[in-house]
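Suppose you are handed a protein chain with no further information: no name, no annotation, nothing but its sequence. What can you learn? This example shows the usual starting point.
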Amino acid sequence: MRRDDLYISVPNLFRCPISLDVMKSPVSLCTGVTYDRSSIQRWLDNGNNTCPATMQILQSKEFVPNHTLQRLIQIWSDSVQHRVDSAESSPQPILTQEQVVELIKSANSESDSSFDCFSKIVCFARESAENRKFLATIDGFVPMLVDFLGNASRGVDFYELTVRILDMIRDEIEDFEKLTNSKLKSADCKFLSSLLVVLQRGSVESRIGSARVLESAAIDAESKLIIAEKDELLPELLKLISPEKDPNLIEAGLSCLIAISSPRRIKVKLVNLGAVKTLAKSLSEPNLSVSITEKVLKLLETVSSVKQGWSEICQDSNCVAKIVQRLLKVSSSATEHAMAILWCVCYLYRDRAAQEAVTKANGVTKILLLMQSNCSPSVRQMSADLLKIFRLNSNIFISCYDTKTTHIMPF
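A reasonable first move is to predict its three-dimensional structure. Written in structure tokens, the prediction is:
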């Protein structure tokens, strides 16, 4: 690909083996080879029953979207577009610290120019950690940003910029949690309404920032209840953690929900809104990252402490099986959370359906393996408690586990 003096090399991985063009909708056949959807569909529609690249006979003509490759192509495409735009436009001068201070003054005094000023400040913040640290130390800048979020007269585009700036510099701000918490509790403040608008209509980056700002404000029981009781806010946060969403968005949503979910009233509300079903669906995803897995299990552990939560977990045998599946080979943190859930539903509440689901998922053998490993004292104690329960069940059947540890006997 050539554009005047700008040469762009296309990675071979991004080209469709049939058309040799960059794939717009990559899908994978059962052979593991990925093609552009339109090209492979045309190949199959012409009566072919082989993989074009390997010429293997296809056992199935179904194909599945390759979301990972699609995201990589999108990232590459965005970077190419940025280079093309940069080559075509005149270079933008780097702002000095003095110019940034003047922009902040202008944004604070002239509402009409605030959007343009904040757009330039976002670019300045993205340039370096040093710039972000400088912004966090400007006297009155952070309170001004928080105040802007409490102003209902602004539009979603302006709120997005404000949230992006806050998110980029929040780690550099002293007492940021106290500041946002104080604003949250203001009687006449529209702080939550602004963040909700961003969650509903903002870009992925802005919604991530909005969830993080909310998380920072949830530092006590009162603030958590204020957030949870805001109309439409909890449902929007739950939408962030749907498995099909951007992984960074999922993680930000989970972190926020974990931060606000400690009060019992909120746990019950989350369960009633379908949190358990959404989290169970997430655990079914084969390529779930360690960090997201830990947070999903942590939130499930949280809601399992109320009757509505553990009852819904017990009613979903697939959910219990997926929890058992995550007991080993993820992380010590994931093991702790998964074991706590199983202990709660099987030992504390003695739910027979959950006990049977654990048994069918080969959970007893995995619990035995955990006790033989270098697990934490709390996990070891919960394992022992669970084994006592399963020992009382005369119908229990411990199946063979793949790691050749059939010599380990529980009783």
